[in-house]
Amino acid sequence: MRVGIVGWFGSDNLGDEMLLRSLITCVRSVEPQASFVVLCPDPERVTRLHEVDSIHMPTLRGGPGTRERQSTAQRALRECDVLCLGPGTVFQERSHNLPWPGTLPLFARIVGMARAAGTPVAVTGAAVREGGTPFGRQLLRGIGAACTAIGVRDARSAGYFGRSAQVIGDMAYTLPLPQLQPQESAQKRFGVSMRPLADGVEGPLIAAIGGCTERLLSDGWSGQFLSMAYGRGAQGENDTTIYEREFSRTMDLAPSPLDTDGPLSASLDRWLTTLAGNQLVLGTRLHAALLAVALGVPTVAIAYERKVNDAFVDLGLERHVVQPDVDAATLHRVAMETAAARDEFHKAAMRVADQGVVSRSFVASVLRGLKK
To answer: CA quadruple 272, 274, 280, 283: dihedral positive or negative?
Structure first.
């Protein structure tokens, strides 16, 4: 079986790379001999990290290599038994660094190319960024109508596609987790995930996180910064710029799995083990927060986008969510309440595991449907 996957992979965002690894793992659990081709912005990087074939997405705009990319994508789609759209927030009309109409025309074109090649298409753990227009909603309905199966991350995204859409949760919930040995440490450690944000939001939030971490450090905690993205080819996405400017004097920088030139798998397990060693995480990046919860680590989610809030509400953790305009005193109070709620997060970790079963079942049903 040949499986195509299309998404924003290879841009050095750890969340996206974890999602791709999760989907590949789910497919291989059903079809161990499956091969893959990933349509993405940086094929060379994806091949190194995941050891699969990858090609450039076809571009909508003219320029050098446009015709070659188009023909390469057409040939690749003809060879696929199924094309998976996602996982991740692949359907975006705009963001703070993405002009309208965003990714929607590109994904509509890829779906049209797959249909012309006779290749069925399945939305797989994808999501829609908020803030869409009537044009975008119409285009999403057209994409959904062309798909044989629609499995989306959350109920809000499902609403764009209609009754045929299934909510399967975040594909990161299926990520294989390392076997952890119980560890007792006299010193408590916290992790911070902070991404670049829009002007007017970033400054006050950095002040709040800085004030909270200062109090934690004065109380004897140690801290580490979790850089989730280097922003390869994506302006305003490099988390280390925040670390170097704001936090390098007060906490260590945790090694990133993205620092490897080889496969992601071994370095990712080491990163997850390090993440599990925290007694508290403060996270803006969705997948820093979700993977911490999956490991049972008490986590405060900073909801810079609706998807962060929605994910924690779905897990029954809404009291551990703060908004980006939170002040330092409130953030510290919520952090202390969260750190004391370990039993609550152990239960949430079990809910994550249950949701992972739903995601894996959806992928299995898509693959089984190809054989009917």
So the answer is: negative
Reported as a single tens digit per residue, the pLDDT across 183-242 is: 666 689 999 999 999 889 999 999 999 999 999 999 999 999 999 998 775 566 899 999
**How far is the C-alpha of 275 from the C-alpha of 292, rounded, in Å?**
7
pLDDT of residue 163: 87
Choose which CATH entry (3.40.50.150, 1.10.287.380, 3.40.80.10, 3.40.50.2000) describes domain 2-176+355-369.
3.40.50.2000
- Fold of the CATH domain 189-353: Rossmann fold (3.40.50)
Among residues 115, 114, 78, the alpha carbon closest in space to that of 2 is found at 78
Look at the alpha carbons of 162, 164, 169, 175 in this order and tell me if their dihedral is positive or negative.
negative
Q: For 51-68, write each residue's pLDDT tens digit.
A: 999 999 987 666 667 788
Q: What pLDDT score does 28 carry?
A: 97
Q: Which residue, among 364, 19, 286, has the nearest Cα to 173 in the 3D structure?
A: 19
Give the pLDDT confidence score for residue 261 in this predicted structure.
Answer: 80
Question: Residue 271 corresponds to which amino acid?
Answer: W
Strand order of the β-sheet with 189-193 is: 252-253, 222-225, 189-193, 280-283, 299-302, 321-322
Burial 194-207 (b: 16+ CB within 10 A, else e): bbbbeeeebeebbe
Q: Which residue has the tokens 């062309």?
A: 146
User: First-to-last CA distance in the chain?
Assistant: 14
Which letter does DSSP use for residue 13 in this model?
B
Question: Side chain identity at 59, as an amino acid letter?
Answer: T
